[in-house]
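Session log. Operator J.P. requested a structure for one protein chain; no other inputs attached. Running the standard single-chain path with token output.
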Amino acid sequence: MSRTVLIAPLLLFLGLGYVAPFLGIVQLSITPGLPHYRTALSDPLIVDVTLRTLRICVGVTVISVAAAYVLTFLWVRGSALISTLVELCIMIPFWISVLTRAFGWLALLSNRGLVNTWLRDHGFIDAALPLVRNEFGVVVGMAHFLIPFAVFPLATAMRNVDERVLMAAEGMGASRLRIFWQVFVPMTASGIIGALLLVFVFAVGFYITPAVLGGGRSVMIAELIYLRIFQMPDWGLAAAISVILMVFVGGLLYLLVRRYGSLAQ
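Structure written below.
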């Protein structure tokens, strides 16, 4: 039995589940022509939301992967107790819904939340700090959600590190810090690239967390698409924005994989 026959059901499922709906969105976006794309590329509001989305996604990606790298290092190379505790910290968030986590951060960071209340009661601040309904709250909530997803490609890369190389570097007199930055980190580059791609793609499509923690003041592209469909009905424009977003993310992934794909080999 050929490989094509074996993967045919999967290809059929992907075609029906993803390709066909996407082609329908493309058709909707070009009806009746290309005015929706001109609006999507020139409207100041849409351009501002797009730039905000990219800014937030880049920040969230960097923060999430950096934090995940530390957690993964402790998980893979820490003692048994530390490894177990870190593993619990990684796994437990998967048992909590994204909506629950978003409202949890709202309870922590709002003007009357636990953080502002504690700071005010201990005399550190006189007025509440604006920690939600802005980009800061959105970044915190998104990073908290995405850190566990960045851990797994990093863990795979760290577990594949050849210990003999690290021992050779130590035997040649390199310090632990130098071994980490000049040997260990480059050897886990494939995991870093994979984590960056995974987190960024997830972040671009975020809706619930920005909607709850942004409070309508830090609207991202997914929320804008929702508004254009359900509250300010303009399905053609929403479809055009969706297609542009898909093309952008797909093109970015293609360029990054082509540029850094050799690192995974």
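Operator note: The mean pLDDT is 88.
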